[in-house]
Design goal:
It is built from 19 helices and 22 strands. With 582 residues, it is of the alpha+beta class. The strands form six sheets. It has a seven-stranded mixed β-sheet with strand order 8-7-18-19-20-17-21, sandwiched between helices. Strands 1-12-3-2-16-22 form a six-stranded mixed β-sheet, covered by helices on one side. Helix 1 links the parallel strand 2 and strand 3. It comes from Marmota marmota marmota (Alpine marmot).
Length: 582
């Protein structure tokens, strides 16, 4: 992301990353004066775009302001001996063709698939010496139904039909992720021949409509209704509904009762790993290992990647065409095109000369909804959490539920709504929604023997606190203590196992990773900011108002998550434009 940086710049692969001595970089760590393409930001989308461009002969350089590549898909050793996926922490949404095209396995990517994948323990007294109930979900439908039947036989019977219903919607939407949205502006200004050519871009939309068929009205409701309304039509048991609803609100400043919350759920169930639809997993070595594999692919074909090199502004010639960038250290780098994986706000409000933007464009970018509820807490522990609902074995070895997304304070959708309402009043949630993951349960390389790294994705925490308070160390630690108190109720002894923690509130996520308002999607994944309208209407096809400038990050279609689609799609648009320009 392009914000403040430091130093003269380090070519990626230099001494800080000894495993990368084979990587290509310029002598003395200085870029050449000219490339075909400049990519701003070495987040995963920027790296994907660079890899695709370089593979097809477009000489590409990537500039990253931080000392490490990956953007939010990064591994950092914040506490000695403990390697954290500091921001993003799970993989599923990365487009399948990216694995294949960029040969990511060849370049070192290793995955740990999770099965089971979801665990929701109850806060309740066990009866007759039994432990409290819990809901454990995985890939075995028969086992899922047995788990759900603890709470409702009716829901157990309905669950396979619900899964089939959602999978059909995913299959309809999936092709839309891999192409630029229909360019409505081009339909208005293009010649008749251009308009006829553009009709072909409607095919994915038409195909989606055919796939959904007569059920289209029901599917339309998934996009527009509150997820509680959708789930109430399928199920009666709150633990199941609340568990499913977490995917509809995670990362979003919305309640399960907010209209349109269903799309975020869809966004989080449309992935898959190694041919298994809906599968989620951990990356061996943390999420930074994924970014490193993409970078290896780019470098293998001749791309250059520089860290600690901050882009200060995009340069424009007298005809209004991009001609490169200026780095914070004053170095000018010329290029035919510039792709920005930074947020729309940073790209257009900080890096782009405002006089070259259309009237009103900057105002629309500034008005994007970037509210974020997320505080990410990374915790180092000296033993596994021991849940009342699923006690550990005497040996303390990981059990199946330890590999899951563990949902706490998620027994009832009302709890999620109340947590949201606290944030609307400017207060951190009194009972935050917590998604707890333990990647070291499957990847022991992340922590010392017997120890573990714990990811706590929590919400809701407002960017701006009520009463004039700010997110200082006192407020951050008070909130983190509240989160640990909640976990303690489900897993007594957890607080005593903590040896260190890293607390990232929305302002921290903005400052460190360049996420506007701390929003993990760059801007909200609401219906008014999707597809034709991402980031704003008439500018949704990766091309920007400034000729030669392209948006390739999560603020472009199809949005956030470690998907890579925005980077890949933007690279395809750039390649077409370069070919047309000759």
């Amino acid at each position: 992301m392009a914000a403040s940086g430091r130093g003269l710049g380090r070519a990626w692969g230099a001494s800080r990353c000894p495993a990368w001595r084979h990587a290509h970089w310029e002598a003395g760590g200085r870029p050449r004066p000219e490339y075909d393409a400049v990519v701003i930001g070495a987040g995963h989308n920027g790296l994907v775009a660079a890899a695709y461009l370089q593979r097809l002969g477009v000489n590409t350089v990537v500039f990253e302001r931080r000392h490490v590549i990956g953007g939010a898909a990064v591994t950092e050793e914040i506490i000695p001996g403990f390697k954290f996926s500091r921001a993003s922490y799970l993989l599923s949404l990365l487009r399948p063709q990216i694995y294949t095209d960029l040969e990511l396995k060849k370049h070192g990517l290793r995955l740990h698939l999770r099965n089971p994948y979801s665990f929701t323990p109850m806060l309740e007294e066990g009866t007759g010496g039994n432990v409290p109930r819990s809901l454990l979900l995985g890939t075995d439908m028969t086992q899922n139904q047995k788990q759900i039947a603890q709470f409702s036989q009716k829901d157990a019977q309905a669950f396979p039909r619900y899964e089939e219903f959602m999978n059909r919607l995913v299959s309809a939407i999936d092709p839309l992720l891999d192409a630029a949205p229909v360019d409505t502006a081009a339909f208005q200004r293009g010649s008749m021949l251009q308009r006829l050519k553009l009709l072909s871009t409607l095919k994915p939309l038409l195909k989606a409509g055919r796939t959904l068929g007569a059920q289209l009205p029901q599917y339309y409701q998934v996009f527009t209704a509150p997820i509680t309304k959708v789930l109430d039509q399928w199920f009666e048991s709150e633990p199941l509904k609340a568990t499913l609803a977490t995917d509809a609100v995670i990362g979003a400043m919305t309640s399960p009762r907010t209209p349109g919350s269903g799309y975020v759920l869809l966004h989080h169930v449309m992935g898959g790993l190694e041919g298994i639809q809906g599968a989620w997993g951990y990356v061996q070595g943390g999420m930074g290992a994924l970014s490193e594999a993409i970078a290896r692919s780019a470098i293998a074909h001749g791309a250059s990647i520089f860290t600690e090199k901050t882009v200060a502004r995009v340069q424009v010639n007298g005809e209004g065409h991009v001609r490169g960038v200026v780095l914070q250290d004053g170095l000018e780098v010329r290029s035919r095109v510039v792709l920005s994986s930074a947020s729309p706000q940073i790209t257009f409000l900080k890096l782009t000369p405002q006089e070259w933007l259309p009237e009103g464009f900057a105002e629309r970018i500034a008005q994007l909804d970037t509210q974020s509820p997320v505080t990410k807490i990374n915790v180092a522990v000296d033993r596994l959490p021991n849940f009342l609902a699923a006690p550990n074995t005497p040996t303390g070895q990981p059990l199946p539920h330890h590999q899951c997304s563990i949902h706490l304070n998620c027994e009832d959708t009302l709890l999620l709504h109340q947590a949201f309402e606290d944030a609307m009043d400017g207060l951190p949630s009194h009972r935050p929604m917590i998604e707890l993951c333990i990647p070291s349960s499957l990847d022991p390389t992340l922590a010392p023997p017997g120890c573990h790294v714990v990811s706590l994705f929590t919400q809701y925490t407002p960017y701006t606190l009520a009463g004039g308070k700010v997110w200082d160390e006192q407020e951050k630690n008070a909130y983190a203590d509240k989160v640990l108190d909640c976990i303690e109720a489900y897993a007594p002894g957890f607080k005593g196992s903590v040896v260190g923690r890293d607390i990232l509130t929305p302002p921290d996520l903005e400052r460190i990773f360049g996420l506007p308002g701390g929003n993990i999607f760059h801007c909200a994944m609401t219906l008014d900011q999707l597809y034709f309208a991402r980031p704003v209407p008439l500018h949704s096809s990766y091309c920007c108002p400034l000729q030669g400038l392209y948006l390739c990050g999560s603020g472009a279609h199809p949005g956030g998550g470690v998907m890579g689609a925005a980077g890949r799609n933007a690279a395809q648009v750039v390649l077409q434009d370069l070919k047309s320009a000759g």
